[in-house]
Write a structure and sequence with these properties.
By secondary structure, this protein is an alpha/beta fold. It is about 25% helix and about 20% strand. The chain has seven helices and 14 strands. An eight-stranded mixed beta sheet has the order 2-1-5-10-11-12-13-14, with helices on both faces. The protein starts with 7 loop residues before the first helix and ends in a 9-residue tail after the last helix. The mean pLDDT is about 95.
């Protein structure tokens, strides 16, 4: 349901866009990640370098592409390259941010997008990794956008598709992944989350307008770290809402 005239997905897009600083590089996928990157590009980060999986590097899309291979992902791009080059940029350490989705996430930011239930006889088979494992492994920071409830914020993943902080402090480095990389933020319909520097556990940073800390707790199967004082996420500004209407005029990803 819309909150105070805007949909929760519009708030998620704005919260994600605000995380991207000017002149950073960001690997985006279809939907909200595209919108967030395009919104950042049209507001505070005109020098952002957007990279699409199909090979569009540095474009300025006039309107929301329908997929990462849409011709609009090459509009005013600095390069019309290939998927190989886009994924290689992550492995070479050139990507500041990568956007990910998730069916399940645990307290360390590990992600499942493969199966729900037992691997041999699952209740549901999901799309799998795609490029998510590469991005979660090699981008300096990953931002996860997903729905939140107790089936998705789980104590134990049904399958580990993409590494977060694995088993806790130092686990990524022991697995051979780049030091200092890993999950950065999680954005749901309820709040914004980060990860504690010492324990690497997920912690609440802010609740969205109209959401309580009790609701956040009720919708997580694992224990979230909750600070004594919890901020409230800033709602979308009139300018952000206007730009979202330009970016996604049909309301395909963020609603009307």
């Amino acid at each position: 349901m819309p909150i105070e005239g805007y949909s929760p997905r519009k708030l998620q897009a704005c919260a994600a866009a605000r995380l991207l600083e000017n002149h950073c590089s960001v690997f985006v996928g279809t939907g909200l990640p595209m919108i967030a990157a395009m919104l950042a590009q049209r507001t505070h980060a005109p020098g952002i370098l957007i990279i699409f999986e199909a090979g569009g590097i540095g474009p300025q899309p006039p309107v929301l592409p329908i997929s990462v291979g849409d011709s609009r992902t090459f509009y005013r791009a600095v390069a019309a390259s290939t998927m190989h080059d886009a994924m290689s940029a992550a492995q070479a350490g050139h990507l500041d941010y990568g956007f990910l989705g998730a069916a399940q996430i645990d307290m360390y930011g590990n992600i499942n997008t493969t199966v729900i239930g037992d691997w041999a006889r699952p209740r549901a088979r999901l799309p799998g990794s795609g490029g998510a494992n590469d991005l979660g492994s090699f981008c300096h920071r990953t931002i996860i956008i997903m729905a939140q409830d107790r089936r998705r914020f789980v104590e134990q993943l049904d399958f580990l598709t993409t590494p977060g902080y694995l088993g806790g402090p130092g686990a990524r480095e022991r697995a051979g992944l780049p030091a200092g990389s890993g999950p950065y933020r999680v954005i749901t319909q309820l709040g914004l989350y980060g990860f504690d520097e010492e324990s690497k556990r997920m912690q609440l940073l802010s609740v969205h307008p109209g959401v309580t800390v009790a609701e956040v707790r009720e919708n997580s199967a694992f224990e979230l770290l909750i600070p004594e004082h919890v901020e409230t996420t800033a709602p979308p500004s009139e300018e952000e809402l206007r730009l979202l209407g330009e970016i996604d005029p049909m309301g395909i990803s963020v609603g009307k």
